[in-house]
């Protein structure tokens, strides 16, 4: 009797009750004060950053120093939270969706145009009038700007370039002080290396296009996608880049598993590879291991001298309760002094020229620091992240031998066009 | 089992309401005490998010700001999205590689440790180790074993049989199978435990009787053990199926969905859509497609395997 | 001969299954920052306990373990009990809509959790549960998987037992506590084992719901120590540390498996 429809009724009733009471994502929570008195900023902000090094002993004090200086100067209280790198997209997006997110957080170039285009970020341009923007390396600002509006300020940069195993260079009869600067020179060296039984270089076909196709594409003078959505990956320069990679694979200058490999560190470490694409982190790792000598080459030039180098930046969400203080923090965090402190600890390259004097004896990093002017941060477009697997798929098919370079480039272009339009 | 309605018809005269309620309570108190609060709990914590996400599939919502109603737009997009269909197909393929071997391996391991072989119990712990070891570590080892160059361990072993080095994760036809192998290895220990618990519930007397009749071990297994494990088979089948259709971590860690989308499973695809491309509504659509597929398959499995004597 | 083969097979299998664990332990003693996905590399030249010391260096570690204990023990105990009750209800009780409700319950785990996290977060945010234990405990007090398992297990127990008890005038609560529950020890131990593993190892939910370091469970605490490039030694040591309780619990519950039901004498 009671059982007959009781359960159903209750189920429906509760569903209706709660469903009807659902609140939209625009619910505001007034926990932070906003002060707009002309005197300056006040209140509180929450800053989310990540542990950049594995060592809290040195990183902790660095953050404390920067933050307490900011607090002193502005009177704003900072709620600093360090969140793990793992799944940070989800954590940030979930919190923002519930209107419970941070006031300042860290993003990389892949994320910025997406978030900016979706209207999620606070525009910083009005706050930057009194900020020294000339001091920033030009390439560092590429990824912080979308459709002529500035949404973030860069704190760090990387520059990827080829690093050569000195022993192998000598073994093939070349001079480590005259490293290949153009594609032709590189191909000569690669052929010699192959002859002597070495791989020429690494290739992480399973990883980001930023480390594989894009640098060659840009060096050839090409572009993947313009800000306005024009697809240029399969123009002559693009096809040239595809051919270059195909050539490397066919001639076995790069290992057979390059199609999905993420890295070839083990081949490099055991002295079987002439060169490796690396950045500041690689330098630290190699110096740590101390197995053989290596030299760093400037980014290669085909038609352009260009390479990949990510930029890390701080942004603020549009639904922050304390925009003024947040913007001020971002500016403060990226000023010369803070950059010096930050990059000394994290071993990345500052984005301000004035802060680049931190490397002292570390010649390698100092050398890399001079290359960031050539370093582009990737494809800056909201679909930048989505098109990568498409291009990757075509590149992989080409390497598997199922398509010619031109076919692969064209197919990639088609896929991108479908996505972007 | 006497149901309430039957009890009522047996009696010729209806006893007073009070007495009927008391009997009802005596017989079924447990249902009222526990099922009802659980239903409430379920509605709040599961049904509500479920319905809210479903509601989202009809909206455009970019995290910040108000959702905008767009009707069936995302569903229609799904129908024409060849990559989504490829993802579904990959997921089905993965399940085929994964489900039966996992069940079989789990059963075999359970039989081994139940067999009374000396030291068998010790092995129970060993076989269970991958279940509690971090996924990242197991995935790392697997990736190393199946490295696509001559240096890879598996390739090294294959070379003794005169087989050329295989590309494995770099090969669009092999990658999915390799990932399936990884999952089988990680999960076999759990399946073993379920079967082991099931084996415990089988009456030892049945074995004794059969042995006295002179039946061989194999015969005993197929005619007694295997059929009596049916409820466990059903459990393992359903849970393995659900797990296999939701496979995500290994593709995320080892292949990035490649090569050429070969390892892009449905959950991988929906994650990419939702959190990388910020198309949350479309990710929600894909979630419901997945849900629907799993539900249909589970109900089919139930039809053929779930039946039992008094209840199904 | 047959025995030799089966022993060999046993050892090969055993070795295969032991290897990852072994490597993890070895790797945890390696003082190095940069990961290499090459297990041979993981054999340390200069074994050091530096990684373990680093993890336990400040009071946070103890705090993290405590948090893990809280968000695991409560759901585990609760699940063991409630899943037994509900498993019994779905296995032995008849009522309209029973199967429908059961499959509705099952339906929910067919949706990928990655998506549901957003509505759940919004809901918990409204409840004020963000950065508290509540969001991690309350939803976990029961789980359909445990219910399903108990239900399947109880199908092999004939109904005569209960019938006899009812005829003697017992109430169903008495039947449950005095008859069913003792018989269900192996399966309840199984539910406990898996519930413990799943809650203890949960990284995702704590990551989303918690913001303060003092609230982190051990999984999240360890993740928060990893730098941008990861830190191999620490990851291994962390995994080893996290592994110990789960394995111990497994061994603990396993004892109860073999106190299996004796069906004889019920005829």
Q: Rg of chain A, please? A: 25 Å
CATH architecture of the largest domain in chain B: Orthogonal Bundle
Biggest pleated-sheet summary of chain B: 2 strands, antiparallel
- Strand order, biggest sheet of chain B? 1-2
* Helix-strand string of chain A: HEHEHEHHEEEEHHHHHEHEEEHHHEHH
Our measurement of the CA-to-CA distance between the termini of chain A, rounded to an integer number of angstroms, reads: 59 Å
CATH overall fold name of the largest domain in chain B: MetI-like fold
Task: Give the beta-strand count of chain A.
Answer: 12
Number of helices of chain A: 16
Name the quaternary structure: heterotrimer
Number of domains of chain B: 2
Q: What is the distance, rounded to the nearest whole angstrom, between the alpha carbons of the first and last residues of chain B?
A: 14 Å
Task: Tally the helices of chain B.
Answer: 14
- What is the average per-residue confidence, as pLDDT of chain A, rounded to a whole number? 85
At the first level of CATH, what is the class of the largest domain in chain B? Mainly Alpha
Short description:
Chain B has 312 residues and is mostly helical. Chain B has 14 helices and two strands, in the order H-H-E-E-H-H-H-H-H-H-H-H-H-H-H-H.
Account of the protein in words:
- The complex is a heterotrimer of chains A (421), B (312) and C (267).
- Chain A is built from 16 helices and twelve strands.
- Chain A folds into two domains: 38-158 and 310-363, 3-Layer(aba) Sandwich (D-Maltodextrin-Binding Protein, domain 2), CATH 3.40.190.10; 161-308 and 386-420, D-Maltodextrin-Binding Protein, domain 2, CATH 3.40.190.10.
- With 421 residues, chain A is an alpha/beta fold.
- Chain A has helices at 3-20, 56-74, 88-97, 112-117, 138-142, 166-171, 183-195, 213-219, 236-250, 265-269, 280-289, 323-333, 336-346, 363-369, 384-399, 405-420; strands at residues 44-49, 77-82, 104-107, 145-146, 149-150, 152-157, 161-165, 275-278, 294-296, 307-308, 311-315, 375-376.
- In chain A, α8 packs across α9 (236-250).
- Chain B has helices at 4-10, 17-56, 73-80, 82-114, 120-132, 135-145, 153-159, 175-200, 204-212, 217-228, 230-245, 249-255, 266-276, 280-305; strands at 59-60, 68-69.
- In chain B, β1 (59-60) and β2 (68-69) form a beta hairpin.
- With 312 residues, chain B is an all-alpha fold.
- In chain B, strands 1-2 form a two-stranded antiparallel sheet.
- Chain B has two domains: 19-75, no CATH class; 82-139 and 176-305, MetI-like (MetI-like fold).
- Chain C is 68% helix and 0% strand.
- Mean pLDDT of chain C is 82; it is low at 259-267.
